Amino acid sequence: MDLKEKELIYRLNRDEKLSEAEYSELIKGRDEEAAVLLANLAAEKRKAVFGDAVYTRGLIEISSNCRNNCLYCGIRRDNQNAKRYRLTKEEIISCADEGYGLGFRTFVLQGGEDPYYTDDVLCGIVSAIKCGHPDCAVTLSMGERSKGSYRKLYDAGADRYLLRHETADAEHYFKLHPKEMSFENRMRCLRDLRETGYQVGCGFMVGSPFQTDETLAGDLKFIELFRPEMCGIGPFIPHHDTPFAKEKAGTVELTLFLLSVIRLILPKVLLPATTALGTVDPDGREKGILAGANVVMPNLSPKEVRKKYELYDNKICTGEESAQCSKCLEARMRSVGYRLVVDRGDAPGFK
Ligand code: SAH
Fold first, then answer.
1. Average pLDDT of 262-266?
2. How far is the CA of 170 from the centre of ligand 1 (A)?
3. 244 CA to middle of ligand 1, Å?
4. What pLDDT does 351 receive?
5. Average pLDDT over all residues of the chain
6. What pLDDT does residue 47 have?
7. How is domain 52-249+300-341 classified at the architecture level of CATH?
8. Number of helices (H) and strands (E), helices first, in the chain?
9. Of ligand 1's atoms, which has the minimum distance to the CA of residue 204?
């Protein structure tokens, strides 16, 4: 690590903002020594805000049907080999009930953009979960919808919404998505979600095709300015039935580095150690926590459908029961000195 790199890291640690050019220098100049320093500073910051608590979210993958055709995603519309399913309201409620018994106080409903989940259907599901478990938060991750739809879902009780921006560079966005999708609409959705009152999560894949140190610097600047309550980043992993089948996966090393940088930019952010990180490295999630993450999202989907929600190849945790998944993660967190807490885990200062 040269002096310049060290100075950039310490400036971040003092809550100074870097320019986009400096963010890209920071990324380009990284080495193991820089990564260790960053991770230590990030862990200190995270400890000051959250202590040794790691929040846990029960992920319910409600549908593998999708009207979109994102070039990286295994459940894209044109993938004829994708196995399609959708969970009914009753199935989703029963996953949440089981999760409640396992100590989850946040449920994340994620899925492809499946037109079956109209506002009425999805509002009915959200309000049924909130009615059964008033002490729980519901997070939605159901893609792009209208502002009116976001408002109805919020009024039905949804607390948070995850919508990764995917990349803050319009041209890069265009290379990852079919032409009928737009960067402007993605950004519009994030603004609408914020204005509606949600705790909002953005994020991106690390090592996605055509990504550069400069586009990553743009992502960091976007995160610094948008100040999301949550931020999901994980390595891109190719899926064999997509146009990006032959592309290289993102690395653990860069993902961990960026997790630490994001923790320093936004000390209070809710930052998951993602399943994708656990897929590219068997100890990826533990390493993610040590680099500054403070959230894990074990799978609560019914075992029968887990393999079908295949966004990328070799996804982990598709053979286990929910109870096994949550026990396993609990042990993994304990092994690195952290503990999973039974708590909604809202963004500090929110509500
Ligand atoms: N339909 C919802 C949920 C998408 S899946 C939405 O549009 O927000 C959640 C995230 O998985 C995506 O935002 C994307 O960043 C990530 N993802 C999709 N395909 C992936 C792949 N091949 N490798 C790694 N992450 C992927």
1. 98
2. 18
3. 14
4. 65
5. 97
6. 96
7. Alpha-Beta Barrel (3.20)
8. 14, 9
9. 15
